């Protein structure tokens, strides 16, 4: 029986048997015992399923990964130690030195640096494109060695909506998968696989946790991309892996080739696994995700409408506003709501934005977003501080941009705190 996402949030991944705990147990163990050497050997050869070392797999982690895969409509998933690790694994699983990929420039600052600086050191080149460019200009950036296209469902911090269907079609035309970071929308509000996306990543630190208790990430495989059809391009999946007994992933695992290679190769060698304790905390957050996202969106809509009418506010970017350039895309991909994050600017200077934030009472200044608590950040001074002025412009981060992550408190109280912070200030005309 097909289940709704609210039910999957509660029951997905873990089904207790007779006398077993209702709540997912924490398997806080590095190793798992077997009776014979042959039993262990069969696990290493991937001939049997089971657990032998938590760096590769753990029952707690697997249960939570299965839940997220079910929420997204994928065939499999892997938890990682952070959202950054998830995006790195998603790219590195199919890219190596000499390869190239394309990404939207409207992405999180940490991801921008990962792609543009760190991966470059590994010999992987990235081209940043503006999603507003026409198809011809973007398609001109594809090369014979291009391996994927990357974007964010809702950009962080610019809050722009990514045209999933358009870019999925473009990527597939050139024989590469579309990878989307779905952190802000979550599968409650958007399921990118239904629009042609192939791989989804998450920073589970954000809405999925919702309480700032753990750092984690996740990669979900749709199982829909035909790697074998582009064997020369994706040789790591379609030719023997000499580091794993000459195994060919597409032959052995079919549409699970991508996620299996990630587990057996990347997790084996790099080991950025989530801890079972963190997976347990994440699972608690997932149980209330559907409820929280509705409240986040309801509150954010009220706050965005209030900001749009406020004479002290220069601009507001929230896709739930009919005046927003992303409104039509939001209605297409996320008709029930987008997320709780609003980008806006005050009339005045960059320093005015900072003074405004300092005047807030219960709204917290934190390096975080997508929390049950309302929080605020000035990206140009904080998360995107490492970027140059030109890079900030390319990433859609204005110097006056304030990222407001609307929590699940009473909307009237959130607005009242914003209002009193504004009233304490003198604005430049």
* The CATH homology group name of the largest domain: Type I PLP-dependent aspartate aminotransferase-like (Major domain)
Count the DSSP helices.
Answer: 17
Q: Distance between the terminal alpha carbons, to the nearest Å?
A: 60 Å
Helix fraction bin:
25-40%
Largest sheet: 7 strands, mixed
The CATH topology of the largest domain comes to Aspartate Aminotransferase, domain 2
Regions with little confidence, pLDDT below 50 for 5+ residues: none
Order of helices and strands: HHHEHEHEHEHEHEEHHHHHEHEHEEHEH
- Shape-level CATH architecture of the largest domain: 3-Layer(aba) Sandwich
Shape assignment: globular
Strand order of the largest sheet: 1-7-6-5-4-2-3
Strand content: 5-15%
Looking at the chains present, what oligomeric state does this protein adopt? single chain
Number of domains: 2
CATH level 1 class label of the largest domain:
Alpha Beta
Q: Please identify the structural class as seen in this structure.
A: alpha/beta
Protein traits:
429 residues; alpha/beta; Aspartate Aminotransferase, domain 2; Aspartate Aminotransferase, domain 1; seven-stranded mixed sheet; five-stranded mixed sheet; globular
